[in-house]
Predict the structure.
Amino acid sequence: MPQASTTARYAHGFALSARARRGFVLHAPAPIAETLYATDVHELRAAAIGVLERERKTLDARDLPWLIAIVRKSKSWAYVDWIAPKVIGDVIARDPRARKRLEVWAMDRNFWVRRAALLAEHDALRAGGGDFALWSRLAASMLEEREFFIRKAIGWVLREVSKKRPELTYDFLRRHRLRVSRLSLLEGAKYLPAHKRKALGLPAEAAWVAREASRKAAGRR
């Protein structure tokens, strides 16, 4: 393991000791995050995102270029799926004008950047907010992709949206039924009502329902 610098060691402790730092605000998280990302140490990179998430209110749209640079370096869902919704998404939620960057990222050659474009508004969309019309356009432009992490991201967001707004998920899948991958379809339709699943050519009951019923039955024995 590469030896961590003093800054990296400080950042690691900073991310892991929130209770001891109650009320403390770090006004320049970028140098710490960039120092940690200069290493290949998982714990230090995770600590960097922890710092960024905790200090996310100090970030704004001007920070998005270096935040997406961190996504490029990440090359792992473990980092991208954290920084995209929790850090980048928070910046966009506070400054909706920054959404225009999502359209640029959605066309990037790096599929991790494209995944970040899909997941940035995950939390907002799940809560019933966000710009689903924009997200739909971004996702539709990626439906032909064979990359697992893109197909999974599309299905994941659709699944979460369906919990509060099933009609949005159903309408997207219905309109793109001939183009959407099996993975995205099954994931996205996971919680849709039986009649909507059947209309999409799926079994009325999702496989997870039967598995859950079997698990509960086994537990009662």
Confidence is low (pLDDT under 50) at residues 1-12, 14-25. The first helix runs from residue 6 to 16.
